[in-house]
Amino acid sequence: MQHPLLPAALSPATLASGILALCLGGCTTVKEHHSPVEIRPAANREFKGWQRTDFHVGGLDTWVAPRATVDLEEIEFAVASTTPRGEHVVLMEFTPEGAERMRSLSTRRMSRPVVVLLDGRVIAAPVLMKPVEGSLVVNFGSDRKDEKAARELARAIDRPRKEPPGSPSRG
User: Fold this and answer.
1) What DSSP state is assigned to residue 120?
2) From residue 34, how far is each of 13, 69, 109, 118 by CA, in Å?
3) Which single residue of 55, 124, 141, 150 could bond 116 by disulfide (Cβ 3.0 to 4.6 Å)?
4) How far apart are CA 3 and CA 96, in angstroms?
5) 28 neighbors 53 (Cβ within 8 angstroms)
């Protein structure tokens, strides 16, 4: 189902700008997490104190930072949808604090991966191609497992007390 916020987010200009992040790899779990959803820096080489995972980006293992940059409380809402090309995506909108943290992270980590954790599992490792301002669209791919991962992430972020602007009220 296409959400009313996604057509603007997935405009040709947005897609061309590199804000859309493609996820590659499989799932793996980190030793310690503090929030149901976290976004952390990642790398394709070892850093002291970072955890090696079997989640692959570009055919390489991914190393995950020990602490989250953004957690569930800094994500205002998320919407899962499917693009006209059949790709399963999640639009995440950040709180002002989360937006500032993502801007800083994406500026420092330009063209390098970050990971999205769901209950400690790496479910996505987008490579950020441009500074993230207030929202991020993560592309999971077009398989059934990708659709499931996108919906799980959006469901984990979705909180009944907060609804995206313009969304129908829950019954």
Assistant:
1) T
2) 35, 12, 22, 11
3) 124
4) 22
5) yes
Cα angle 64, 39, 170 (rounded to 5 degrees) comes to 150
Neighbouring C-beta atoms of residue 8, cutoff 10 Å: 10
Query: How does pLDDT run along the chain (171 residues), one tens digit per residue?
Result: 444 445 454 544 444 333 444 444 444 777 777 889 999 999 999 999 999 988 888 888 899 999 999 999 999 999 999 999 999 999 999 999 999 999 999 999 899 999 999 999 999 999 999 999 899 999 999 999 999 999 999 999 986 544 455 555 433
**Is the entire prediction scored with pTM above 0.85?**
no
CA distance 121 to 65: 13
Q: What does 47-93 look like in DSSP terms, one character per residue?
A: -TTPEEEEEEETTEEEEE-SS-SEEGGGEEEEEEEE-TTS-EEEEEE
Cβ-contact 115, 138 below 8 angstroms: no
Residue 111, judged by CB atoms within 10 A of its CB (0-12, 13-18, 19+), counts as exposed
